[in-house]
């Protein structure tokens, strides 16, 4: 059990320059006993309101140096402060505030919300077990208007989908990776310098002057995973979910026009989804 959707803004000041982290936190714990469920005995239960207050106090006292470190701080607090807690899981996601630049000069205290994917982190720990750290990005919507097709698929009497050599490839992506038991990594360096997010975009889009052909959503998912694992050595296992966003070409013949895939309508449901988990062999076997 636990507390979901704990939302707050953490403001850090260094003289005139301000730094912001607006986050949403979910913290769940498991106790040594199930007596509150079986017997109605609440003597070991930490109220979810207390869980919320602890998260806010940790934000005040420790700040949020990185999402990953804050998730680690939450796990470590519950494991050290409460002997009845045998498992804790902390999820932290960030509102994408970016510092405003005016004529190339960074503003000291003004920000703009630029939702190009939501960064998140997760840490979990069992008592007497390792603390495991995850990170990722979600709600990242990507599109390329050519260099994608879908041909040669299995067909039977119920197949109505035509083969396509050229189509729009659009999807909403969820990507989550594991750092394993590593807690001393420079998580922001991995995010900003090793550029896991940029690896996703590069694998999806291909070279800027010509792109790269995608024969299926599945192959695109694999290409994303392979590129991240090849460029970011700290990542052990990576899960990718790509939800298809389909665009239907409008028939304009009754309007006396030929629509050469120029005007299309998005089809929200139903939608296809492709998911895969890929990892370095020694970690998957473990």
TrEMBL record:
GO terms for biological process: purine nucleobase catabolic process; urate catabolic process. Its main location: other. It comes from the Eukaryota. Gene3D superfamilies: Urate Oxidase. Urate binds at residues 48-49, 150, 167, 218, 244. Pathway: Purine metabolism; urate degradation; (S)-allantoin from urate: step 1/3. InterPro entries: Uricase. O2 binds at residues 48, 244. Keywords: Oxidoreductase, Peroxisome, Purine metabolism. GO terms for molecular function: urate oxidase activity. 5-hydroxyisourate binds at residues 48-49, 150, 167, 218, 244. It is found in: Peroxisome. Signal peptide: none annotated. It catalyses: urate + O2 + H2O = 5-hydroxyisourate + H2O2. One of its GO terms (cellular component) is peroxisome. Its EC number is 1.7.3.3. Catalyzes the oxidation of uric acid to 5-hydroxyisourate, which is further processed to form (S)-allantoin. Belongs to the uricase family. This is Uricase.
């Amino acid at each position: 059990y636990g507390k979901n959707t704990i939302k707050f803004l953490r403001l850090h000041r260094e003289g005139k320059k301000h730094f912001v982290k607006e986050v949403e936190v979910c913290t769940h714990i498991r106790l040594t006993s199930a007596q509150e469920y079986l017997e109605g005995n609440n003597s070991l239960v930490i109220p979810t309101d207390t869980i919320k207050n602890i998260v806010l106090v940790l934000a005040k006292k420790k700040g949020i140096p990185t999402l990953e470190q804050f998730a680690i701080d939450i796990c470590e607090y519950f494991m050290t402060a409460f002997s009845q807690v045998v498992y804790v899981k902390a999820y932290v996601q960030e509102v994408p505030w970016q510092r405003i630049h005016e004529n190339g000069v960074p503003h000291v205290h003004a920000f703009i919300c630029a939702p190009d994917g939501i960064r998140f982190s997760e840490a979990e720990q069992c008592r007497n077990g390792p603390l495991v750290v995850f990170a990722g990005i979600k709600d990242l919507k990507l599109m390329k208007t050519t260099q994608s097709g879908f041909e040669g698929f299995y067909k039977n009497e119920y197949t109505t989908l035509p083969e396509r050599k050229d189509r729009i490839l659009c999807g909403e992506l969820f990507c989550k990776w594991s750092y394993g038991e590593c807690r001393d990594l420079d998580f922001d360096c991995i995010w900003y310098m090793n550029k896991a997010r940029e690896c996703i975009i590069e694998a999806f889009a291909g070279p800027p002057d010509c792109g790269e052909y995608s024969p299926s959503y599945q192959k695109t998912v694999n290409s994303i995973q392979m590129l991240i694992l090849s460029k970011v050595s700290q990542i052990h296992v990576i899960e990718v979910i790509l939800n298809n966003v389909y665009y239907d070409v409008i028939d304009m013949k009754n309007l006396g026009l030929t629509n050469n895939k120029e005007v299309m309508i998005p089809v929200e449901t139903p939608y296809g989804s492709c998911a895969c988990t890929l990892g370095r062999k020694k970690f998957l076997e473990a």
